[in-house]
Amino acid sequence: MRVTTFVIFIYFSGLHFLFSQTCITGSVTFNTQAEVNSFVSTYSSSGCKSIGGDLRISGTGLSLTGLSFLDTIKGILRLEPTGATAISVNLTGLTGLDKINSLKVRKITNSSLTTINISSFSGYIEIRDCDNLQQFNFIPAAVLTNTVSSMIISNCPVLFGLTSLNSLQVCSSFQLSNTGIINYTLPASFHTATTSFYISGNQGLVTLSIPNTNFTTPTLTMTNNKKATTFSLNIGTSENITINDSLNSLTILNPSATQNFDILSLKLPKMTSLAFLSNINTVKDLRIEFNGTTLNELTNIDSLEKLTLENCPNLTTFGGLHPDIFHLNTLKIQNCASLLNMAGFSQISQIGYLNYQNIGFGSLILTNNALLNSVQHLNTFDIYSATVTGNPNLNFCCRLNSISWPQYSNSSNNGTPCNSFTNLATYCVDSDQDGIINYLIIVPQMLISISSTPIRTESEMCVMPVQFQSI
């Protein structure tokens, strides 16, 4: 009997020892110092070294010195209050901590998060709503050499130091918004954001550079950085780029020969040149806002489907498209106050398209272009629909007679001949029934018919006449 009792005692003692190494399998929250002290009293001498879930520190000013026996948090190290009031966190007690999965920081009053002895990190970093945080040096730079699932730093208005990120290579999504960073060059090792790359609302940001020549992300957004003047981007591949900032200089280098931008949206109201577009060959949907007088950089883009020129107040000259572009699904020109005509678009023979159900999509949109007086350069026989409004000087518009679906179209607040589709039927006529539109134009206080010289009247507008079967 004595032997049997001894064996059973040894068995349960060993079992206790094995379980004690993993400590708690779930998560732990510390709101009060009493909760910290109780945890230390229960586990510090038991051989416990890890927490299987999250460690959440939610109380302010807690002393964590008794937690030095912990070396692993298998879940998230969460530094955040349970309510709305920000907390102060003292991490000096976590000197033994070596491995964490992820880090989440929210509403702390600390001015810095400094390095503790982290050697293994595999999850995500999220830092939000820290009004006083100036430096983030929490994860040693050498640890961030592998994939980080995401990096989100948001609403930390005085944060200017990110030395922890110096060796970052890959993350699924990278977000830097509403921080105090002024000049930032991403690590040269950083080459991939597998989901998105987002830079927004950093009111002091002046320059941003992505130096890696093979940088890849499906979606890049840079917007609302009020002081931003310079952005330099080496691009390996990216499907969607949106830049909406007060930049004076934008450089997009090294686009892949097979690069295919689904959307390239450039809202750059201070820039007067878009020379970098000459480096790009393939864009499906191109949206441009800038302050230049000429736009000659689109002739290398060979697969354009949609083009938007919007808020280009000084644009007078459009230098044309790639010679193989004859069809656009959508052409939109809006708020381009200095543009006089559609020169540069003469090669376009079709706007819009029919799907497999024979339903039309796409359109010609010309709105609020103060000096636009003619669309006759547009050598288009097939337009699905059109919205042509707010162009007070537009009087030459017989091309709009080629609209397939006028019931889905609108022409208003233009010059009299172009002010409605009813007016078009009146002023654009084939008076001699030869299939050639003869154009009648309103001149103040008189109506002049130029139907007797139809070819000459069109050529005087620098375009050839268009033939129609009927009006």
Describe this structure in words.
It is a single chain. The protein is 9% helix and 33% strand. With 471 residues, the chain is mainly β. It has a domain of 147 residues. Strand 34 and strand 35 form a beta hairpin. 32% of the residues are buried.
Topology:
Elements: H1 2-20, E1 28-30, H2 33-43, E2 50-51, E3 55-57, E4 72-79, E5 99-106, E6 112-113, E7 120-121, E8 124-128, E9 135-136, E10 147-156, E11 170-179, E12 183-185, E13 192-200, E14 207-210, E15 219-223, E16 230-234, E17 240-244, E18 249-253, E19 261-268, E20 283-290, E21 294-295, E22 306-310, E23 317-318, E24 327-328, E25 330-334, E26 350-351, E27 353-354, E28 360-361, E29 364-367, E30 382-383, E31 386-389, E32 410-412, H3 421-427, E33 428-429, E34 438-443, E35 446-449, H4 454-459
Parallel strand pairs: 1-3, 2-4, 3-4, 4-5, 5-7, 5-8, 6-9, 8-10, 10-11, 11-13, 12-14, 13-15, 14-16, 15-17, 16-18, 17-19, 19-20, 20-22, 21-23, 22-25, 24-26, 25-29, 26-30, 29-31, 31-32
Antiparallel strand pairs: 27-28, 33-34, 34-35
